[in-house]
């Protein structure tokens, strides 16, 4: 057997080193358990729902599990005081935090308030580290709505300034502690400004009460946290060569049947990885479909790419699900994002079924944490022999519900048709 030349050995060593670096830079690992922590905005179970939707169906890593730990009225220092009993016992490997709305006391910032917030955030991070959490994302608070917060734009300007100053403190804490940071308020304000320009002042992004977002604002929040967790948005590729009569798919998708000829391709595809799907009236705040126009969710997090080569200058029509759209040959050769171009697609119904299962899981988690786990010390005073087994069983049931959510992500069979012509 011949030995490899020195150059080849060096190239192999460089390749292995680059692979190792890439693996080390990947934030989420297979089998990670993500804790989503925050106040009443987290307890709404919307941005946490969208995050779990994404982690299970879009699959930035395999076999991810999630629990939401929202608690109405909470502050960073309040959570720090109770987190060992209420959250650390779950042993997550990843945690995101979102505090500041209540910490700011709905009033202008001052040095005492800034120090209290900094100390609270620092305490939370240090206790998460001590609890064995590998990845920590310190999130900034979101924004209040420019028009519905106290029905006074001046009050909204005042409090968004406070919340922005808290964002800067949260970023400083994350840097000092060597953990990740999610800027939640900036994309929310940017999307809110653009949306109101199109739909008017009553299109709120931070809720009818100015504080608790509807589905639109929560999708922006989920985006900020998923980006901070390193999700790259590459959900797979489908490549078709009309001239060469070839087709292939990758990244959780496989072509099971192909008919190509005479300027037409008909593909049967099976996918274990879903694109993120949106619903609702795009003109309404309680929908996810309209707000995606105002921030780059699809471009950054939701790309299922179709590339078609060998197309005549007239371009081709693409049919996926109930919709048909025409694209130029240049667009098809460069690649189109099916998830962005076809909002009504074959994954919408399967996506909703999984989301319903996740919603059921997360609705169990609020009373689990607030009514059962939180009062464990009290139970132990009266039932010292029975409490541990009872709480373990309650937490185990949450894991069973999470497993049911994961099991609901079943392969989807769908058809993609390409036809040359206008």
Describe this structure as you would to a colleague:
The chain has 422 residues and is α/β, with parallel strands linked by helices. The protein folds into two domains: 28-228, 3-Layer(aba) Sandwich (Rossmann fold), CATH 3.40.50; 234-345 and 411-420, Immunoglobulin-like (Sandwich), CATH 2.60.40. The chain has helices at residues 6-25, 40-43, 47-58, 76-86, 111-130, 153-177, 185-199, 215-228, 297-301, 329-334, 338-341, 348-373, 376-382, 387-407, and strands at 33-38, 65-70, 94-98, 135-139, 180-182, 234-241, 246-250, 253-261, 264-271, 303-309, 316-320, 323-327, 336-337, 412-420. Helix 5 (111-130) packs across helix 6.
Note the main attributes of this structure:
20% strand, 5-stranded parallel beta sheet, disordered N terminus, Immunoglobulin-like, 422 residues, single chain, alpha/beta, Rossmann fold
Along the chain, the helix and strand elements come as HEHHEHEHEHEHHEEEEHEEEHEHHHHE
Strand order of the largest sheet: 2-1-3-4-5
Based on helices, strands and strand pairing, what is the structural class?
Answer: alpha/beta
Tell me, rounded to a whole number, the average pLDDT.
94
The biggest beta sheet is recorded as: 5 strands, parallel
Quick rundown:
The protein has 422 residues and is an alpha/beta fold. The protein has 14 helices and 14 strands.
Secondary-structure blueprint:
Elements: H1 6-25, E1 33-38, H2 40-43, H3 47-58, E2 65-70, H4 76-86, E3 94-98, H5 111-130, E4 135-139, H6 153-177, E5 180-182, H7 185-199, H8 215-228, E6 234-241, E7 246-250, E8 253-261, E9 264-271, H9 297-301, E10 303-309, E11 316-320, E12 323-327, H10 329-334, E13 336-337, H11 338-341, H12 348-373, H13 376-382, H14 387-407, E14 412-420
Helix pairs in contact: 3-8, 3-12, 4-5, 5-6, 7-8, 12-14
């Amino acid at each position: 057997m011949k030995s490899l030349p020195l150059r080849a050995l060096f190239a192999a060593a460089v390749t292995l080193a680059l692979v190792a670096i890439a693996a080390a830079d990947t934030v989420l690992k297979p089998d990670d358990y993500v804790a989503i922590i925050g106040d009443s905005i987290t307890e709404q179970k919307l941005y946490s729902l969208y995050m779990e939707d994404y982690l299970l169906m879009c699959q930035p890593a395999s076999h991810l599990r999630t629990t939401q730990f929202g608690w109405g009225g909470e502050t960073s220092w309040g959570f720090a005081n109770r987190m060992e009993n209420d959250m650390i016992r779950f042993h997550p490997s990843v945690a995101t935090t979102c505090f500041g709305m209540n910490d700011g006391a709905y009033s202008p910032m001052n040095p005492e308030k800034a120090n209290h917030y900094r100390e609270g955030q620092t305490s939370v991070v240090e206790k998460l580290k001590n609890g064995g959490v590998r990845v920590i994302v310190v999130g900034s608070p979101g924004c209040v709505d420019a028009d519905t917060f106290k029905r006074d734009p001046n009050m909204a300007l005042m409090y968004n300034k406070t919340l922005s100053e808290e964002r800067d403190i949260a970023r400083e804490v994350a840097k000092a502690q060597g953990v990740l940071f999610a800027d939640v308020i900036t994309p929310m304000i940017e999307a809110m400004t653009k949306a109101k320009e199109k739909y008017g002042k009553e299109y709120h992004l931070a809720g009818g009460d100015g504080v608790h977002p509807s589905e639109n604002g929560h999708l922006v929040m989920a985006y900020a946290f998923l980006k901070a967790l390193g999700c790259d948005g590459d959900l797979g590729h489908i490549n078709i060569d009309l001239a060469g009569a070839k087709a292939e798919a990758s990244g959780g998708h496989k072509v099971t049947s192909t008919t190509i000829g005479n300027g037409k391709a008909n593909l049967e595809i099976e996918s274990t990885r879903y694109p993120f799907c949106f619903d609702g009236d795009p003109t309404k705040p309680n929908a996810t479909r309209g707000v995606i126009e105002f921030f780059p969710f699809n471009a950054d997090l939701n790309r299922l790419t179709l590339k078609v080569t060998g197309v005549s200058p007239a371009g081709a029509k693409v049919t996926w699900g109930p919709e048909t759209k025409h694209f130029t040959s240049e667009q098809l050769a460069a690649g189109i994002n099916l998830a962005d171009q076809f909002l009504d697609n074959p994954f919408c119904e399967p996506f909703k079924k999984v989301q319903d299962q996740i919603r059921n899981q997360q609705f169990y988690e609020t009373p689990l944490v607030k009514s059962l786990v939180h009062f464990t010390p009290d139970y132990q005073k009266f039932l010292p022999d029975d409490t541990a087994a009872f709480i373990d069983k309650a937490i185990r049931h949450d894991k069973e519900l999470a497993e049911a959510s994961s099991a609901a992500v079943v392969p989807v069979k769908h058809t993609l048709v390409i036809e040359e012509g206008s």
